[in-house]
Write a structure and sequence with these properties.
Elements: H1 7-16, E1 25-26, E2 29-30, H2 42-48, E3 60-64, H3 70-77, E4 82-87, H4 90-103, E5 108-111, E6 124-130, H5 139-150, E7 151-158, E8 190-192, E9 205-207, H6 209-218, E10 221-228, E11 231-236
Parallel strand pairs: 3-4, 3-6, 4-5, 6-7
Antiparallel strand pairs: 1-2, 7-11, 8-9, 10-11
Length: about 250
């Protein structure tokens, strides 16, 4: 017998599963009403929702680092045939399962790290990689693994960014004596955070826009659009494993 989710029961369960980073609206109950970013991630989603297909019927979706399940639920609402959300944090997965149940959405959630996506042995038409890269010790490895193992077509990428929003015209190569290019604010830069940032010890990196785009290209993705300051809609390209990949190529 299915649970009848009254407002009182939703509120009690949401509080028991807290704290939440996704401020979800579950039948009128807010999971994080005091969120420092307000109606997050809905406020961010509004800025790039139109850049994704409105009808995902017949398509499969993987949400990497699904947190409380907001984006996985949006994909299911667009008719995706299968949506899988993965996260390394079992507390977030419990929140996501609860939210999907309340909303009546058939979504699978599994505890898995981005570094272990090869274990899925499955490719997905749409891969969401939102709010994860800057929390990783090995960000480019993660992008390589996504390309190699799970992405089939579209990648939705988002990262916290800092530094210049300008993208410099970078030549394919430079002489060893050329150093000035590295001082250009528009040169790809990945800022390393040794300790905490925003009181969060899991914030390890902050790319500028040029770096986000360069890393995506390096991992084998074509940037199709940039609908929001930190969001890139990409398409997976075929590439030669002899030239790219997680393992340094032999020559």
């Amino acid at each position: 017998m299915k649970q009848e989710w009254t407002e009182e029961r939703i509120r009690a369960r949401a509080q028991a599963l807290g704290p939440w980073f996704h401020n979800l609206d579950l039948k009128g109950v807010r999971t994080a009403p005091e969120h420092f970013l307000g109606d997050y991630p809905e406020v961010k989603w509004r800025n790039f929702a139109a850049a994704l297909p409105a009808d995902l019927a017949g398509r499969t979706v993987l949400d990497i680092g699904c947190n409380g399940g907001f984006y996985a639920m949006q994909m299911k609402r667009r008719g995706a045939a299968r949506v899988l959300g993965i996260d390394f944090d079992e507390d977030y997965l419990a929140q996501a399962r609860f939210a999907a149940e309340v909303e009546g959405l058939d979504i699978e959630f599994r505890q898995l790290s981005v570094y272990d996506v090869g274990a899925l042995r499955e490719r997905f038409d749409v891969v969401l990689f939102v709010g994860v890269l800057y929390h990783l010790r090995h960000p480019l490895l993660a992008l390589d693994l996504i390309h190699e193992h799970v992405a089939r077509d579209l990648l939705v990428f988002q990262s916290m960014q800092r530094g210049s929003d300008r993208v410099a015209a970078v030549a394919p190569d430079y002489d060893f004596a050329e150093t000035a290019i590295f001082d250009d604010p528009g040169y790809p830069k990945l800022h390393f955070i040794e300790r905490d940032y925003a009181h969060d010890p899991t914030n390890w990196w902050a790319p500028n826009r040029a770096c986000s785009e360069a890393m995506l290209r390096s991992a084998g993705f074509e940037v199709l659009s940039h609908p929001e300051a930190e969001v890139f809609i990409c398409r997976r390209l075929a590439r030669s494993d002899a030239a790219y990949g997680a393992v340094y190529p032999s020559r």
